[in-house]
Amino acid sequence: MRISYFAWVRERMGIAEETLELPQAVATVRDLVSWLAARDARGARAFAEPGKIRAALGGAMVGPDAAIGDAEEVALFPPVTGG
Question: What is the mean pLDDT of the segment spanning 9-26?
Fold first, then answer.
């Protein structure tokens, strides 16, 4: 699965995207964020406040309890403000 990072999430991860094979236990966006946070120091830094993370599956905004299923891409980013 391709995971794309945007804004300060990308800066903290140090990469714009990566392709990962997710463990079977990672079924939802919330699971993914928790797994990424526990994986290494950069993930811990990027996802220290999981409530601030927004996600899109295949370009559609979803909540933290959304099932990842067989999505090809998950995008993770901070809240977006207009201006």
Answer: 96
